[in-house]
Amino acid sequence: MKNVLITSKAFGSQLDNQHRQQLLSYFADNGWQIIWNPGEQAMSAADIIKINAEQPLAAIAVYSSSDELSSAVFEHCHNLKVISRHGVGVENIDLAAAQKAGVQIKTTADMPGYETVADLTFALMLTIARQIHIIDAQLRQNKWYRPVSSDVWGKTLGILGLGRIGKAVVTRAQGFGMKLLACTGHPDQEYFTANKITLCSKEELVAQADFITLHAALNEQTREMINTRDFSLMKPTAYLINTARSGLVNQAALLNALKTKQIAGAALDVFDIEPAVNDLLLKENLANVVATAHVGSYTFDSIRRMDFLVAENIVTANATAKPARSPANFNKNNYSELKIS
């Protein structure tokens, strides 16, 4: 049996017991023994190295962007062959060290989860603009509160990062008659023309947009791409939406902009440290903030597909001449065929 470390006990447990048992059987049938994170928090490099010393790891299923896959992990885990990321972000993985060690890095980018994230992006945009979170909270206290809120229809949407999620957001925004601005390092002029999108600089985008949504990957070039200067350029009526990565925004500058009403509000699904139980911005309990717990891809269909793709990435990366066995009712070409009991 080969050992796979799964960095969160939550893996496979969000849906139903049948789903979890299918996942466990899939690993077992293909010769894998699961080792679970013994704690409740994200795993540090030291945590992973300690487990590897006792049970050498051939694979790691990385569940959180807070798990630490530093160079030390690759230096100590000599049997490691593959890391399978539950999601698409790899900013917490030392890619250069992985390549040097000959470890494959796989993600769930091949699944259509970008549509699910785009749904949440628009849900957050509507919630913060129409103050749905405040109205709901007041009604639950038997208070008939009817604030004057902001339209989304016909407003200007600025999109920073125009990959698959950004383009999925474009499709939704078109249904709301929004004027579209975009800033991207790889502009497709044919796509821009066909969808009536204006290509502009980051500074022009943040100054003109009523809503700014982030869909860039986090790297050294994009880290804190939204900072104090950008908030100073934004309209006081502007809203920031972030379903990508917390590190794209200088969090101290964001907190200041929200507290001083430099911008109208922010809707966030991502935080510097997750779970975000002690996040400074959340502790302020600001009315102009809507927050969700990194649930961009957390729908029944999306989680089901993602869980099995994480497992398949490990099994197929280590497959020998004998073909990998598939779990019952599992069709790798159509993850949605898995039924929810």
Descriptive keywords:
disordered C terminus, 341 residues, seven-stranded parallel β-sheet, five-stranded parallel β-sheet, Rossmann fold, alpha/beta
Task: Report a brief summary of the structure.
GO terms for molecular function: hydroxypyruvate reductase [NAD(P)H] activity; NAD binding. The chain is α/β, with parallel strands linked by helices and 341 residues long. The chain has helices at residues 17-29, 45-54, 71-76, 95-101, 114-130, 132-139, 164-175, 189-194, 202-208, 228-233, 251-259, 280-283, 300-317, and strands spanning 2-6, 32-36, 59-62, 82-85, 104-106, 156-160, 179-183, 197-199, 211-214, 239-242, 265-268, 289-291.
Radius of gyration: 21 Å
* Approximate shape: globular
How large is the share of residues in beta strands? Answer: 5-15%
Count of DSSP H/I helices: 13
Whole-number count of domains: 2
Helix/sheet category = alpha/beta
Level-2 CATH architecture of the largest domain: 3-Layer(aba) Sandwich
Tell me, what is the CATH class of the largest domain?
Alpha Beta
Proportion of helical residues = 25-40%
Distance between the termini: 30 Å
Assign the CATH superfamily of the largest domain.
NAD(P)-binding Rossmann-like Domain
Give the SSE order as H and E letters.
Answer: EHEHEHEHEHHEHEHEHEHEHEHEH
